[in-house]
User: Fold this.
Amino acid sequence: MTNIYEEVRIALYGIWHRRWLALGIAWLVCLVGWVFVAMVPNSYESKARIFVQTDNVLSDQIGVGNDGKRDIERVRQTLTSSVNLEKVIRATRLGDKITSDKQMESAVQGLGARIKVVSQQDNLFEISASSGSGGYTDVQNAKLAQDIVQKMIDIFREENLAGGRGEMSSTLAFMDQQLADRQKDLEAAEQKRQEFEAKNTDLIPGSGSLGAKLESARSELRGVESDLLAAQSALASINGQLSGTPQTIMVPGVSGGAKGALAQAQSDLASMRARGLTDSHPDVIALKSQIASLSRQAASESGHVGGTPNPAYSSLQSIKADREASVVALQSRKASLQGEIGQLTGKQYSEPAVAAEAARINRDYDVLKEQYDKLLRDREQLRLRGQVESEHDAVKFDVIDPPSTPRAPAAPDRPLLLMLVLIVGLGAGCGAAFAVAQLRSTYTTTGQLERASGMPVLGSVSLTLTRQARALRNRHLKWFAGASAGLVAVLVLLLAVEFMKRGMVA
Assistant:
């Protein structure tokens, strides 16, 4: 601890012994530093806060509200674009001295570095701008910073209101043009499809086409086959009943038999023809078949005495004839349907290219129709959204804090810099004096001499000054104190000037 104390004493004595050198260097450093600080122009900053309300009850109710937050964020990011900054420059004092594109580019770059748009919350934004040009006074720089922020607010409002509505109008015009183009393409595709269908009515797929006809014929054939099976089963049942039913009933004094039934059938046939039924009528066909059968039975009954015809047997014969006629008609219809199906199948496999062309035409038409319908829905939604935004602003602005008028420079902090210059100057002077003391081979204490020489030091002689020397030393100390106080006085004067200038700006 004693060694440290002695080293500090030695260093302080070396600095004090060369105090005039330290004071001169401090004056030099302070003067240069204060001049440099004085040359730095003051920069004034203006700030404003705006609240952006994106909620709209009508838009949310009808379901056409746009993404306001996304739009606001987009505007915030593009607010400092070159185009907007050029608008700010031309609308403020910054554009007074700009005469060329190169100067405008330089001014835009410089202004972009001095403007900040910060999102403090979801819908709260802070816009700040600073101005510190050496070509303007402090009052002009303060006013210029306020004007820049005000112009930025105006641009922010234009980008969301006027710019948004203009963008909506241009978007609707573009959608209308696209709809007109799609409508022409759709009409051309529809006309092409109609012409193709008229030329290949039986071969193209679709309603009433070859495929539909083929499927209809197959469905009808399945129904006919089912009916034919039922008719054949019913005919077999009637035949079974006929085999167990006697043809005549023996009644004394009554003639009948097959001849009586034949006469009755021939009478019925004559009655049918009198009503205008032709030979192709199913009832006529059945009755003729019954007459042929009765004729064979009447021939077998020659020479025999018969009884009265059995009414039940005659009724079963009539039912059998009806069932046979139904079976014949169904078989005929089945053969006709099978022939039609074969013909349609042959056409289908003989023209595959026509079916492929029809499918392609229909596919193109469906795609165009889907695109047209989607564009039409989007256009109507955009039109409705535009009406909502025109009559009820979806984005509302509230300037919470208007552009502030700077009262004090934001940069630099001149009082702090002036005091730092004084501290640096004093430190530089003391450091220079200490360095010189280290370079000179002088000894301040006996202990330092003893350590340097390696020999014991027996004693030291104190400095004794005469009255004249003592007076001269006191006079030098007064001069040193005055010179040191001068540094502080200059600092106080510079601080006073600085605060006076701030008061003039306020």
Summary: The CA atoms of residues 258 and 300 lie 9 Å apart. Confidence is low (pLDDT under 50) at residues 56-68. DSSP finds 16 helices and six strands in the chain. Residues 311-350 form the longest helix (40 residues).
